[in-house]
Write a structure and sequence with these properties.
With about 350 residues, the chain is an alpha/beta fold. It has a single domain, classed as Metal-dependent hydrolases (TIM Barrel, Alpha-Beta Barrel), CATH 3.20.20.140. Helices cover about 45% and strands about 10% of the residues. It contains 14 helices and 11 strands. β10, α12 and β11 form a beta-alpha-beta unit. The two termini are about 30 Å apart. The N terminus is likely disordered. One of its GO terms (cellular component) is cytoplasm. Pfam families: Amidohydro_2.
C-alpha cells in the first residue's frame, strides 16, 4: 500500500487487450496485472482492540511521519470502493485494458505483531474473504492469501488453507520482527510452497530505517525498494534459492534496488569468502529464478530489469488502486519500447503461464 500526491488524470484512451505495441504485432495472451490489492474489513474488525495493535500503529506513525499519515487516510478512503467492490474493480480493469488481476490483501493486513491464535485466525479469514471477492468474477480475478511470518510454524498451515480455497498462494512481507527471510525456521514453508507450486508475492510493508525516512514520504519511495533489496539478498546469499530452485516468487516494485545494482553483490561474492559462503552461484544469476513486477515508474529502469532478469521473468504490475501505482500499466509498459515478443510476454504471456493451477 502506498500514499502520495493524487494522480493526475490521464489523457487519451486506455490501452485495450487487442492493442499492439507496434504495427503487425501478434497478441494472444490476456493482459494480466499481478500487483493489485483488496481491502478486507473482516480483518480490521478481527484485530480491533487486540493487544499490540496500538503499539504497531504507533510504530507505523513513527516510520511514516505526520505528513504522510495526513495524506494516507484520505487517499485510502477515496479508494475503498475500488478496493472492496468487484463491480468497481472490473470497470477500472476494463478502462485499463486489463483482463485478469492477481489480487492480494492490502499489506496493512499483515499484522505481524499478532500472537499465534490471532495470527492464524487472521490469515484464515483473509484467505476466505479474498477467495469470496475473487469468486464474484471467476476467470478475471485470482487471489492470494496471507502467511504469518512471525510464526513460521503456522506458515505452512495457512499456505495450505489458502491453496485449498482455490487461491494461488500467499503474500508475504520482506521480514517479520526478529526474523529475516533467510531464517532456517522458514525451510518447511519454502519446501511446501515449492511442492505445491504456490505463488509467493513478496510485498514489503514498512521499513526498519524508521524516523530516518519520516519526511517527504521517503518511508515508501526509499524504504520499499530498500526492503525489497534486503529481503531478496537474504534469499540469495543464504542459499534458499539453491535449496528451493522451483519457488515461484514474485517481487513487487521490480525487486527494488537489487536487480539493477547487483554488480556490487557479484563483486563481493567473488572477492570475499564471507560474502560467497552461503550461495553456490554468482548473485546476479539468481534473478532468472525469480519473478518481478513491472512497477518501476521509469521505462529505462524497466528495460534494464528485463535485460538482467530476462523478459520471461517480468510481469505486468500496477499496485491497483493505490496512488503509488500506475493507472495505465499497459501504457507504462509500452513506454519502454520493447520488442513485440517481450512486450507481449510481460503484458500477460508470462503471467498466463505462471498462474495456471496445473
Amino acid at each position: 500500500m502506498a500514499a502520495g500526491r493524487r494522480a493526475r488524470p490521464r489523457h487519451g484512451r486506455a490501452a485495450r487487450p487487442h492493442d499492439d505495441p507496434a504495427e503487425g504485432a501478434s497478441v494472444t495472451a490476456p493482459t494480466v496485472d499481478v500487483h493489485a490489492h483488496v481491502l478486507l474489513p473482516e480483518v480490521d474488525a478481527l484485530v480491533a482492540g487486540r493487544p499490540g495493535l496500538a503499539e504497531a500503529r504507533a510504530l507505523d506513525a513513527l516510520r511514516n511521519g505526520p505528513a504522510a499519515l495526513a495524506v494516507n487516510g484520505p487517499m485510502v478512503r477515496e479508494r475503498v470502493p475500488a478496493l472492496t467492490d468487484v463491480a468497481v474493480r472490473l470497470s477500472a480493469m476494463d478502462a485499463q485494458g486489463v483482463d485478469v488481476q492477481l489480487v492480494s490483501p492490502s499489506p496493512s493486513h499483515y499484522h505481524y505483531w499478532a500472537d499465534e491464535e490471532t495470527a492464524e485466525k487472521l490469515c484464515l479469514l483473509a484467505g476466505e474473504a479474498t477467495a469470496a471477492h475473487c469468486a464474484r468474477a471467476p476467470g478475471r480475478l485470482h487471489g492470494l492469501g496471507l502467511a504469518p511470518l512471525q510464526h513460521p510454524k503456522l506458515a505452512v498451515r495457512t499456505l495450505e488453507h489458502a491453496m485449498g480455497l482455490g487461491l494461488l498462494g500467499v503474500e508475504i512481507s520482506s521480514h517479520a520482527p526478529g526474523r529475516e527471510l533467510s531464517d532456517p525456521a522458514y525451510e518447511p514453508f519454502w519446501t511446501r510452497a515449492e511442492d505445491t507450486g504456490a505463488i509467493l508475492f513478496l510485498h514489503p510493508f514498512g521499513c526498519t530505517l524508521d524516523e530516518r525516512l519520516d519526511r517527504w514520504y521517503l518511508s515508501n519511495t526509499v524504504g520499499q525498494p530498500t526492503e525489497n533489496a534486503v529481503a531478496l539478498s537474504h534469499l540469495i546469499f543464504s542459499g534458499v534459492l539453491d535449496r528451493h530452485p522451483g519457488l515461484k516468487l514474485i517481487a513487487a516494485h521490480g525487486g527494488g534496488y537489487l536487480p539493477t545494482h547487483l554488480g556490487r553483490s557479484d563483486h563481493a561474492w567473488s572477492a570475499r569468502s564471507d560474502a560467497g559462503a552461503g550461495c553456490a552461484h554468482l548473485p546476479s544469476s539468481y534473478l532468472k529464478r525469480l519473478y518481478f513486477d513491472s512497477l518501476v515508474h521509469d521505462p529505462y529502469v524497466l528495460r534494464e530489469l528485463i535485460r538482467v532478469a530476462g523478459a520471461d521473468r517480468v510481469l505486468l504490475g500496477s499496485d491497483f488502486p493505490f496512488d503509488m501505482g500506475t493507472e495505465d500499466p499497459v501504457g507504462a509498459l509500452r513506454a519502454a519500447r520493447l520488442s513485440d515478443a517481450d512486450f507481449d510476454a510481460v503484458r500477460g504471456g508470462n503471467a498466463a503461464l505462471l498462474l495456471r493451477k496445473d
